[in-house]
Amino acid sequence: MNEAVRNPAKPTPGPTKGPIIEIENLSISFFTRKGEIPAVMDFSCTVMPGEAMGIVGESGCGKSTVSLGIMRDLSNIGKIVGGKIKFQGKDMGELSDEELRSIRGNKIAMIYQEPMASLNPAMKVGQQLMEVPLIHDKVSKEEAYKRALDMVRSVKLPDPERMMRSYPHQLSGGQQQRIVIAMALLSKPALLLLDEPTTALDVTVEAGIVDLVKGLGEKFGTSMIFVSHNLGLILETCDRITVMYSGEAVETGKIKDVFDRMRHPYTQGLFRSIPLPGADKNSRPLISIPGQLPLPHERPKGCNFGPRCHHFVEGVCNAAEIPMIEVAGHEGHFSRCVRFNEIDWEALPPGAKKVNERVMPGAPVLKIEDLRKYYRVGGSEVFGSSEGRVVKANETISFMARESETVAIVGESGCGKSTLAKVLLGLETASAGTVTLGNTEIQSTGIDKRSVDTVSSIQMVFQNPFDTLNPSHSVGSQIIRTLEKFNVGKTVADRRKRMLELLDLVKLPRAFETRKPRQLSGGQKQRIGVARAFAGDAKVVVADEPVSALDVSVQAAVTELLMDIQRKNKTTMLFISHDLSVVRYIADRVVVMYLGYIVEQGTTDQIFAPPYHPYTEALLSAIPIADTSVVKKHIVLEGDIPSAMNPPSGCPFQTRCGYKKLVPDNLCETKVPPVKHLGDGHMSLCWLSDDVLAKMEPVIKFDKEHAAHEGMPDDASHGDGPGFAGTPPKRPRGKRPS
Amino acid sequence: MPVQYISGFTVVFEVLSRFWPVWIALVIVMGASFAYKKKLALYGQLFDSGVGIVGVGICLFWLFTAIFAATISPFDPLAQIPIMKDVLPGAVEPQSGLTYLFGGDKLARDVFSRMVYGSQIVLIIAPAATGFALMVGITLGLPAGYYGGKIDTVLSFLANLVLAFPVILLFYLLVTPGIMDTPIPYGMAGVFFLFPIIFFSVLFWTRYKNRPDRLYILLGITLILGGWIYLGLVFDKDPLHIVHIDPNQLNIFVAVVFASSPGVFRIVRGLVMDIKTRDYVAAAQTRGESPWYIMLWEILPNARGPLIVDACLRIGYTTILLGTLGYFGLGLAPESPDWGTAIKDASRLLRSFIHPALPPTIALMSFVLGLNLLADSLREQSMKD
Ligand SMILES: Nc1ncnc2c1ncn2[C@@H]1O[C@H](COP(=O)(O)OP(=O)(O)OP(=O)(O)O)[C@@H](O)[C@H]1O
Ligand code: SF4
Ligand code: SF4
Ligand SMILES: [Mg+2]
After folding, report:
1. I want to staple A696 with a disulfide (CB 3.0 to 4.6 A). Which of A263, A304, A563, A610 is the partner?
2. A162: left (phi > 0), else alpha (psi -120 to 50), else beta?
3. Which DSSP state fits A395?
4. Are B346 and B105 in contact (CB under 8 A)?
5. Does the pLDDT at position A738 exceed 70?
6. pLDDT at position A716, please?
7. Is the C-alpha dihedral spanning A482, A483, A486, A491 positive or negative?
8. Atom of ligand 1 at shortest distance to CA of A66?
9. How confident is the model at residue B298 (pLDDT cuts 50, 70, 90)?
10. Would you list which residues of chain B are within 8 Å, Cβ to Cβ, of chain A?
11. B136 and B274 both lie in a single domain
């Protein structure tokens, strides 16, 4: 029976030859006490057997609601108010509860963002996996065990026997997610729904899952609906894409069509606001989409995107509700825009063409030398045992940041970025080494002992916009309190004036003074966070993933704002991030961290070009890039990041490094490598010899062929058909000088 | 001379009309609240649901009853008019011509008036004791949750110790005459009543340290007012002779605060442990705020939702507790009209006369019910955003 796993059946012949799932004009509403919230309106899509459909959109646009609608799992307040979902040709609305349940368990499987939501914490993984064939196929125990084990192997988990014997909490997040996928696949579903399956994971772990998911269609013949907010991920995993905006699908088509020849201004806006390779903070800044998503019950008449669209025309765009309009010449490409034939797809929105002068970094402001931070854990206090283990959160950190320079600190969870930030800000004191801010050493002065001057000159912008402002106090009073703490202004009136100026600085209306944080959107809150950090004329601002929790269309605006203020105030910025695309865009210099060590540092150009440190190379390859012309070297790291409690001996990266075998004498496993100077301040922590380094190839390359053809879609004749009126469209993004 | 009776219908009508000041006050307050509910934040949102309106209505009803007790009740709650002993509801007292609306009890007192006056006692002691318990619980719970470690271990241990002790037994101990003669109750009162003064002083100090103009005024008010009440309550030495509490009541009061502050402590501690991980707390730390500022101004305001709900429920428990204590004769003076004592008195003769027991029982039930409804709807509303 387990050939079903090894060479799984192509989709069963017969009724499934047609589409697996057909969604026609689906509308879903939530009925709350405040009235009806139309979460999804008029959504259509079709998924063929073995095909992967990606759904992208910003938070609240209804992506998850669509997938829950397919599962018919809309709690008691959600209702399908219109349209049909046909699964393998059968209308799901007409099925009995019994039939629905069997489809849900057998033929459609769903994978959520949080793996633990689908696992039973009290049951061994093996048992949970075996239950699926035991219940569904009523096979014997041995058979079930065999199938489960095979499946664990095919989701590429190391040491499958041991995995089967573990409890979910003994596995890492990435491994848990693999188990959930294995569990879903065991029931041999025809359709797999994945709702942000990797959002909770680290990039290098995400890359592994993406790799696994990509192969599923071919290997198991499973169709997929992949919900994500990340265009790059969709590009890597899917064949077709549907872009959603405010409850509607606004554009759908083949990946290539939508990515290269998009026909909806919102899609274009999305692409323009993400830092693709080629964007540059000085000469080609990001272009954000103005405004914000309308609330579901306050959508405008006509085009939902109207209020934020540069091409809006009164009386055309808001005359009537807009259907999906086919783009001629493209197969299955639809757009919900009435003007896509008339729009000049290359024009930049007014005021977007600003070029900033490059700012030269000045004198060093922050110097960190050989910084170490160890935490003592365990060793119960009650019994007074001093044993306890030591967690080395930061090891020999040395780098320097100059005036008006942006230094990015890159690394995945647990690499010690946040500990470093805490030491800099004085929330923790260093175990050894020095941190010099201006002329003062601050490594061992806790925040309560720092002078007001020191405190105000190093400040922080936090990651989670929904958490950085105290929900109980008004926006104005929170800024004023900060000013008061920093001794800015003598009287209350002085400070209020300064607070209003700060609101101007972050481009918020002064009326926000009296607002409570819950009345602000995520982006607006983050702006207040920025205002607060710059309130005392900070010399150094530590920004901890300041935009990662924001919607793509808002990210660009906040990033640009942060850089504008930095440029004006000549502030030094430490930009903590795991996203190398943003880093390449924003940073002057980059510091790559892994397990408490700095493994590589140098200017942005040095980091993004070979020779790489093996970890940097893997990190670069793991980042999903939403550009069809980019070809990446494919490196998938094995395993997960080791725990800092139990670090490997020798090189911190040795458990996952692919280059280890090129180093003689087993040095990697025994000795921490020395810092290798590669010239011009480029440093790397690795044993690799110069000739190996010299042979490294760039990870990210532009596909020459693609670039040559761009602007000349070869599947369409130019000049005729509504999609290509006038001059043939060139690359619509204006993202790279060709 | 036989006692005259009025009809059942007239009794109902009379009762309703005796409450006239309450009705007027209710209409004004509820009407105004309803009209301006948009501007009244959480309190205004209560008026969005039926449960909330009923809850607020019942609680306000008893509040106004307590305020207007003198106008509402036809008789002195302690006065005994021998002829009216054990009379049934609706008996007319011949001298004044007024009616014992709910009859008379075994000491010939007017049950209706006693119920009305009883509300005064309940509505003062229960919320005030809860208020003090909140002060104690918050002031200790904040550092326990915020610092953790040794402080937390010690305080939590003490709290658990108190919680593990059977409440009734605790009260027996605290309210027995032997203990009442020792300085223990006054000692405890001295400690408990210090907490609000400490709480408010620290509250204002942390916030207005750099703004002496405000600070001195607020601290001055706190210290003078607090000191004055403290003198009156603990030492009974109020120079103006306004603040005064019977030793008996003080005892009950202290016992109730003692029994319910560990509960508050635990809730506050849990909330603080959760809230202190938020970024806005980190933001406050990075701008150099002192720990007590963070606890009182950054964390506490965000814990208010669950605390308000808890306070409502706790006032209810305390009311029941007072009733129970009264029932065991542990409570207030034997002739006190509070509901618990009244139920106890009436229960002795339950087999011959049921009417004296009913009004205080129903009063107690309805008040606790009102508080629970209020708590429920507060919880629901605060979950909304
Ligand atoms: N249970 C619910 N009750 C009321 N409204 C809801 C409910 N669930 C979702 N909504 C509303 O429906 C809309 C679509 O929500 P949905 O969760 O599908 O968005 P999403 O695209 O998945 O967003 P995210 O990227 O944040 O996951 C939102 O406006 C949301 O507020
Ligand atoms: S219909 Fe009009 S407003 Fe809507 S996207 Fe197209 S051009 Fe913009
Ligand atoms: S030292 Fe060895 S294990 Fe470490 S990164 Fe270099 S090659 Fe890899
Ligand atoms: Mg979602």
Report:
1. A610
2. alpha
3. E
4. yes
5. no
6. 36
7. negative
8. 18
9. very high
10. 149-150, 153, 210-211, 278-280, 282-290, 298, 301-302, 304, 385
11. yes
Instruction: Give the gap in angstroms from C-alpha B268 to the nearest C-alpha of chain A.
Output: 17
Q: Do B279 and A532 touch (CB under 8 A)?
A: no
What mean pLDDT comes out for the span B101-113? Answer: 84
Q: Domain containing A131: what range?
A: 122-186
ipTM confidence score: 0.82
Measured between CA atoms, the residue of chain B closest to residue A421 is B286
Q: Give a yes or no: residue B139 inside a domain.
A: yes
Q: Is residue B39 part of a domain?
A: yes
Q: How far is the C-alpha of A492 from the C-alpha of A535, rounded, in Å?
A: 15
Q: What is the pLDDT of residues A634-647, one digit of tens each?
A: 888 877 778 777 88
In a domain, A177, yes or no: yes
Name the percent of chain A lying above pLDDT 90. 26
The answer to whether the CB of A338 is under 6 A from ligand 2 is yes
The nearest CA of chain B is from the CA of A254 a distance in Å of 40
For residue A142, report the phi and psi dihedrals to the nearest 5 degrees.
-60, -45
The residues of A whose Cβ lies within 8 A of any Cβ of B are 381-382, 425-427, 447-448, 450, 452, 455-456, 459-460, 462-464, 467-473, 482, 484-486, 492, 518, 529, 532
Query: How confident is the model over A408-423, as pLDDT tens digits?
Result: 999 887 788 888 998 9
Q: Is the peptide bond before A509 cis (omega within 30 degrees of 0)?
A: no
More confident: A414 or B197:
B197
Is residue B297 included in any domain, yes or no? Answer: yes
CB-based burial, B278-307: b 16+ in 10 Å, e otherwise: bbbbbbbbbbbbeebbbbbbbbbebbebbb
Asked if the Cβ–Cβ distance from A470 to B282 is below 8 Å, we say no
B280 and B142 in one domain? Answer: yes
Q: Which tens digits make up the pLDDT trace of B211-240? A: 888 899 999 999 999 999 888 888 877 777
Q: Which of A64, A73, A246 has most ligand 1 atoms within 8 Å of its beta carbon, as the pocket-test mutant? A: A64
Last residue of a domain, which of A554, A573, A594?
A594
Distance of CA B383 to the CA centre of its chain: 25
Does ligand 2 come within 6 angstroms of the Cβ of A302? no
Main-chain dihedrals φ then ψ at residue A49, nearest 5 degrees: -60, 135
Q: Quick one: pLDDT at residue A378?
A: 60
Q: Which residues of B touch A454 (CB under 8 A)?
A: none
- Residue A706's pLDDT is 52
Other C-beta atoms within 10 Å of B237: how many? 12
d(CA B291, CA A627): 49
Q: Do B151 and B194 fall within a single domain?
A: yes
What residue type is assigned to position B233 of the chain? L
pTM: 0.81
pLDDT beyond 90 at A281: no
pLDDT tens digit sequence for B241-250: 777 777 777 8
Question: Which DSSP symbol is given to A348?
Answer: P
Which of A337, A341, A343, A345 is the pocket-test mutation for ligand 2 (most atoms within 8 Å of CB)? A337
Q: Is A615 exposed, middle or buried (0-12, 13-18, 19+ CB in 10 A)?
A: buried
Shared domain check, B210 and B175: yes
Q: State which residues form the domain around B188.
A: 118-326
| Chain B contact set for A464 (CB, 8 A) | 279
Is the distance from the beta carbon of residue A144 to the nearest atom of ligand 2 less than 6 Å?
no
Q: Which residue has the higher pLDDT, A709 or A722?
A: A709
Whether residue B189 lies inside any domain: the answer is yes
Alpha carbon distance A263, A464 (integer Å): 33
- Is the same domain home to B55 and B176? no
Query: What pLDDT band is residue A359 in, cutting at 50, 70 and 90?
Result: confident
If phi > 0 it is left, if psi is from -120 to 50 it is alpha, else beta; for residue A623 that is beta
Closest-approach residue (CA) in chain B for A459: B286
Contact across the interface for A470 and B385, Cβ inside 8 Å: no
